[in-house]
Amino acid sequence: MPYVETYYKPGADADIQRPPLTGQIDADVCVVGGGLAGLSAALELARLGRRVCVLEAERIAWGASGRNGGFVSPGYSAGYKTIARAVGADHAKTLHRLSIEGAAAVAANLEQLSAADVNRTDGILSTSRYEAADSLKAHRDWLEREFDYRLEFRSRAQVREALASACYHQGLYNPNGFHLQPLNYARALAREIERLGGGLFEASRARALGQQGAMRVVSTDSGQVRAKDVVIASGGYTAGLEPRLRRSYLPIATYVMLTRPDKALIASAIRTTAAIGDTRRAGDYYRLVDGGERILWGGKITTRTGEPRQLARLLRQTMVATYPQLKDLEVDLAWSGLMAYARHLMPQIGRLGDGLWYCTAFGGHGLNTTAIGGRVVAEAIAGQSDRYRLFEPFGLAWNGGVAGRAAAQAAYWTMQAMDAIRERPPVWKSPLVKPRTALDSA
What we know:
The chain is an alpha/beta fold. The chain has eleven helices and 17 strands. The chain has a domain at 14-119 and 181-248 and 343-399: 3-Layer(bba) Sandwich (FAD/NAD(P)-binding domain), CATH 3.50.50. Strands 3, 4, 5, 6, 11, 12, 13, 14 and 15 form a nine-stranded mixed beta sheet that branches. Strands 1, 2, 7, 8, 9, 10, 16 and 17 form an eight-stranded mixed beta sheet that branches.
């Protein structure tokens, strides 16, 4: 898949090509993968005074890290109830607090790095496509009670004032959430790593892992890195470097489109600068970019990388079904990237052996979780904490191979069908049937 600049062109170092690794170098830590997880881990380690080397097979943030929707808010791909069933309520609450810390870490990086081209915009509005006022209010109250995290309920009238669509009912507005330009954010992290003395090498695919005494050795086509610790953070592009990781995640393609500019037409439908998502199991997400001139719209996942133009047509159909007034708004660009999903939908963070760490499988919720994943791995390497163990109960579950991919795609199609059924207007009501709420899938 070629490197995609898409609309992410204005960055100050957009055209900088870092050299490949040549020869042998020594480092305290070698990080494999120049996406958000690898960059976050490398930056945390560099801040702790470690000599860091990052190996990227293509270019910095080449995969899903530089091509995602740019939403930053707490949570994981697995819903809270699912996590609590697996590890218990107290452990689940600790994990959720970590996800809040991760979002705060991104905000702190933006402030410290003064990266103007990241274009931070505050506010995320999560909308429901069916009647869900009571469950949304209950969720709001629970978050404030348990985590002192405040959301604001939006009535149907308030939602439709911001979003001129008959599809939406109520919503929750997160004033602490925000959205940004992810590729330029990743580039800002890379610049800071280099400022702190770290080395970043592009076009340097890690081909093999070895060991020389107490040192780990990572080999590329034209060089080697010797380091006491190695962090594998290559996500959906890990391939065969470490079979235990390759067997434990599913590479899932996600798709994003960018409309042509038409500020007046777009304003007839979307009247908020907040990023928009919905509570469906197979939901869409979108936001205004370029000062409201365009819409960036994401959604749809497949277990095989499809032709972006074909998927863009499907995304556009969803956009027009949501906003019929945008039927004349055409697509300008479309692109895709591979995410790593574990079957349990939680990040895979841990240690494979002395000096060999992994930080991967963020499953489409990576901006906050890569930040906290990189931090806890760095803390462990530096001997500061063992918080990475909070993710151990989820482990490296087998991905199911070819059957696992087929099952994942079938599950997604099933979720889409269930969403469609749930959004149908009720034909009749029975006092014996309890309606499904927005939190049943949380």
